[in-house]
Amino acid sequence: MLDSVWPRQGIWQSFGLAHGLPDMKVEGLCIDSRGVVWAGTHDKGVAFYDGSSFACLSRQEGLPGHGVYAIRSLGNGTVLLATDDGIARYANGGLECLDGDHGPVLWGCATHGDRIYFGLDRLSGEPPRIAICDENSVNVVELDDQPDARGMSVTAMTLAGDGNIWCGGTHLYSYDGKEFDRKDTPGDLGQIRVLCARETSSEIWGAADSGLFRIRDGEFEPLQGPETIQGMVESNAGDLWATGHDGNLYRARGSSLVTESNIGVPLWRGVVVDPEGRIWVGSYGYGLFCYDPTRMMIPVTARGGAGIASAAAVGSDGDLWIGSGSELIRSQNDLAPEVLTWPAEISSHAITALLVDSDGTLWIGKRNGTVFRIERSDITQCQTHDSIEGYGIRDLAQDNLGNVWFCLGYSDGFGYFDRSGTISMVSVPGGPSRVACVAPSSTGSIYLGVQRFGEWDGVWEYVDGEVHRVAGTQGVSANAMLEDEQGILWVGTSEGVLRLDNEFAVTYNMSDGLPSDLVTCLFEDSRGVLWIGTEGGGAACYDGGVFQTVRVPSNPALNSVVSVSQAVDDEIWFATNGGVVRYRQKRVLPTVEMLQVSADRDHLPRDGLQLPDTAGRVSISFRGLSRSVVSSDLVYRHRLVGLSDEWTQTRELEAEFVKLRPRNYRFELQAVDPDLNYSEVLAIDFDVTEDPRIGALTAALSDARHGEFIGESEALEEVRRQVREVGWTDLTVLILGETGTGKGLAARLVHELSERRNGPFIHVNCGALPSGLVDSELFGHDKGAFTGAISKKLGKFELAEGGSIFLDEIGDLPEESQTRLLRVLQDRCIERVGGATTIPIDVRVIAATNRDLTEAVRKAEYRADLFYRLNVFPITIPPLRARVEDISQLSNHFADTFSDHLNVPMPIMSESAQRALMEYGWPGNVRELEHTIQRAVLLARGGVIGREHLGMVSSDEAPQGDQGMIIPLSAYEKQYIERVLRITDGVIHGAKGAAKLLGMKPTTLRSRIEKLGVKRPLR
Questions:
Q1: pLDDT per residue over 90-119, tens digit each?
Q2: 157, containing H or E segment
C-alpha cells in the first residue's frame, strides 16, 4: 500500500490571439459580478471574456493607458481598470477616466467594501503610495512619513479577515483605514511580489525575492518553498493556489506548496478563481490559461506515469479497479492506490477485461485466456479449458442468472462461468466465429457480436443452443454491445453506434453528433444516459435528446476510450490508452440567446416578425453561454414548429430553413453542455406571408394582355411553341434577341409555365451590376467579408430558392464572375463571399443576352464552358421587322393600354399612320413601338392618330444604309429623346415630364441626355 496521496492533474485550456485576446502578455486578471473574466495586457489594453468571445478596450475606446496591470470589480458591476497612465471606470458599457495625479499603477490591488486600493509605482525621494478609489474619485495616500531615496513601488496588496489592508513592496505595511503600520521583517526580503490573505486560517501568505513566507497571529514566518511564485489566490473552497514563473501551478497543503500541474510556460502575476472553481492564470507572452481541478482528474498510476489502462471497473463499495498492463490497481476513495501482488506464474500477462458482478466479485480476464476472481480480497483462478488457452479474453458480461459470459480474441470460442468459476464452453455447429463482444438480454438470451465481415457478420442471438441473426445487423462489424434498461440493443461499430428497437434499426454517426465513428465500448449509467467510448474522439453521452462529447483537450491517448464505469457518487471513469480519467459532472445550466433573423433583410429576433415567402431562406443566428465550460463545448437543439416537431442537433451557431410556405412558425432553441444540462427553451414566433409582388406578378402573367406575346405571325408562333416545350421542365434556358424584342417577357412565361410558378422570380440585370459587387449581389456575402459588409446579405440565388432566377444581359458578366457562375451551374451550390460554407440551391436559371455569344466565345471574350452550360435550350426572339404582320395588333394593344392609363378614349389609327408603322424598320423593336404609340396617344387630342403624331424618322431624314430607313439605335434614341423634350418644353421631372412619358427615372434620363449629347430646347 502506498502512503502518499494519489497524484492527479486537472484539465487546462488556453486562449490566445486566435481567440480574440489582443496581447499574449497578461498582467492582471479579475472576475466581475457577472462571472466575466477580465484580462489586462502589457500594452494592448484590456480584454473581457463572457464564455463565448473576447471583447477589447484600448485607448481608442477611452482607456487612459495601453498597459493594464490591475483590475477590480465592485458588486454593482462597475469595474475599475488601473493602467500605466491612469485609472478608468467601466460601467453600463462605457468607459470614463477618473481624475487624479498618481502616475502608473502596478499589480497590487485589493477591494474593501465599495473602495478599491491600487499600488502605485515608485517616485524617487518620495514615500510609497497607494490610490484609494471609489466609483467617482481617486485619492492618493502615502504609506510612510519617511521619504525613500529610491522610492518604493507597491507591488502587492491583500485584504485580511480583520479588514486591514496589507501592502508590500520592499517593505511590508498594514493599513486599518486610518493609519499605516510598517511591519518588521527579518533581513532584506527584496521585492514582495505577492500577498494573499486566507479567510479559512486568518493567515497571510506572501512571496518575495527572498522566498515564501506567511504571517500568522501578526508574526512573520519564513517558509520552505519555490522561489518562483508570481501570484496567489484563495478559492471559495478554501484552497490556496499559487503560480510560478517555472510554469507550475501549486496548491497549498499545510505550510508547503505542492505542485498540482505544470503548463510548461512562465506563469505571471494574474491569477483568479471563478465561481465554478476554475483557476484563471495569465502568462508573460503565452496568453491566458484556465485550469479546472474538479471537472476532470487524470490520476498518475503507482509506477509514476499515466500508462495505458486496458480496463476499469467500479465495485459496489466504491473501489476503483484499473487494469494497466499486467498490473491490477485498486484505489479506495481515489486517495491511496494499491498495486496487487500477483503469483509469479501469471504476472506476465496483460489484463484485457474487468467486471464487477452483482455480488461484488471482481472478474479479471487476461491475454493468455485465463480468468481470475477477487472475492473479499481472495484471488482465485477460474477453471480453464483447452480451447481457450493462449487466446485473450475479449469481453466479460453477467446474465440474469449470475453466469459470467466471455468471448475470445482471434478465436471462435465463447462460453460462460457459473458463480463458482466453473467453465462451460458453447459450441454451435456452423455458428458465428470471431465473437468480439457479448451482451446478455433481459429475456435470458445472449447477444453475440461478430467483428469480421462475411457470412457470420453482425449480431446474433443465442438461445437454447441455437443462433439467429438479429434483424438489421447484416454487414455490421460489432465492437461492443449493450442492452439498456428499456430493452433497446445498442451496437458499437466502426461506422457509428447502431440502435435496434423492435427490429427497427438506426445508425448514429458523426453527422448526428458522435465525436468519432469508431465506437469501442458502451455503458449505461444510473440516470439512463448512454456512454459511447470512441477511438480518438473521447466519449459521447446520449440521453435520448442530444449527443454530447467529453474530451480531454490536446491529448489523443486520453481520448481513446476502452471502457467506461461509474462510481457510487456518480463520477464517471474512463479507461483509456493514456491511463484513467475521472469525470465529475456539474449541474450548472447554460443560457442561450438569439442574435439575428435574416430573410429578405436582417431583423432583430422578436415575436411577430413578418417575413416574405420570396426570401428563399430564413436564417436564425444564436449563441450559448455557460459558467462551467467554454461556449465551443456547447451543442444546440432546435426545431421549427410548423415545419417539423422533430428536434435537430447542431454545433453551428445558425439554423437555416428553405422554401418556407406562408403560415405561422415557432422557432424553439436550447443549448446543452457536456454534462447534459439544458438551457431554458428560447422561442420566437414569426409569420411567413405571401409576397404581394408575387401575387401581382401572377395576376399580370395570368392576364392575356400582359402575359402573352401579341401577334399571330409564324415567327412568333414558333417562339410560343418553344416556350411551351421547355416551360414545364427544369432545363436552363438561354433567350437570344435584339434589345426590345421581349426577352424578359419570354423569361417570365417560361417561369409561369413551370412547377416553380408559385416560387420567386428574381430578375437580375447583369449589365447594371457594379463590377466589384457582382459576386456579392449574385451569391451574397458574410459579415466582415469586405469593407462595408457590416452584416450578412443573402444573394439573388438564395432569394430565388424554389423559383427561377433570370440573368438578363448575361453576356456582360465579368470573367471572374463567369467562373463562379459556372461552378454554380455544375454543382448546384454556392458560397457566399467571405464564407466557407457550401450552400445547396434549388433554382432554375433563365438567361438572356443581345450579344452573339458564339462569336464572343470564338474571340475568347466569353467562357466556352459557361456558354455550353447556358445554351441547353436556346430560344431566339425575332426582331419586329421579321414579323411585320404583328405591328397592327401590337399598336392597337399599346394604344388601348395607354388610353386606359390616361383615362381617355382610345384614339383611331389613321391610314397614313398605319402605313408609316408598317414601313418603318423598328431598330428598337417592340419597346420602340410601345413608346411611339404612347407618345401618339398623348398627342392625338382629336381622337385620331396621324403620321405626324408618331415622331418617326422619315426616309429622307434617315441615314441610308443596307436597311434603308434603319439608323444606329443611339442616333434614333437621341432624336427620340429630343422630340419628347420638345413636347414637354424641356421639362424632365413631374407628371407631365419627359421621364414620366419615357417610363424611366429622371436620373436615368439625365444620364442618357448627357451620354448621347441631347440638346434640350430653350424655355
A1: 988 889 988 766 667 777 888 888 888 998
A2: strand 156-159
Which residues share a beta bridge with 194?
A: 207
* Strand, helix or coil for residue 593: strand
Secondary structure, 3-state, 343-366: CCCCCCCCEEEEEECCCCCEEEEE
Instruction: Judge whether 588 and 276 are in contact, CB under 8 Å.
Output: yes
Residue located via cell numbers 498597459: 67
DSSP labels, 557-594: GGGBEEEEEE-TTS-EEEEETTEEEEE-------EEEE
Q: At 98, which amino acid appears?
A: L
Q: Average pLDDT of the chain?
A: 85
- Give me the phi and psi of 348, to 5 degrees please: -90, -5
pLDDT band, very low/low/confident/very high, at 302 (cuts 50, 70, 90): very low
**Taking the alpha carbons of 808, 811, 817, 821 in that order, is the dihedral positive or negative?**
positive
Predicted model pTM: 0.69
CA distance 330 to 174: 50
SS3 (DSSP) at 792 = coil
Q: CA nearest 36: which of 274, 235, 286?
A: 274
Q: Which amino acid is at 976?
A: Y
3-state SS class at 684? strand
The pLDDT score that the predictor gives to residue 243 is 94
Nearest to 584 by CA among 636, 628, 646: 628
How confident is residue 697, by pLDDT bands cut at 50, 70 and 90? very low
The answer for 725, left when phi > 0, alpha when psi is -120 to 50, beta otherwise, is alpha
pLDDT at 1004 over 50: yes
Q: Could you give the C-alpha distances from 354 to 360, 406, 435, 610, in angstroms and in order?
A: 12, 11, 18, 60
d(CA 146, CA 142): 10
Cell of 373: 476472481
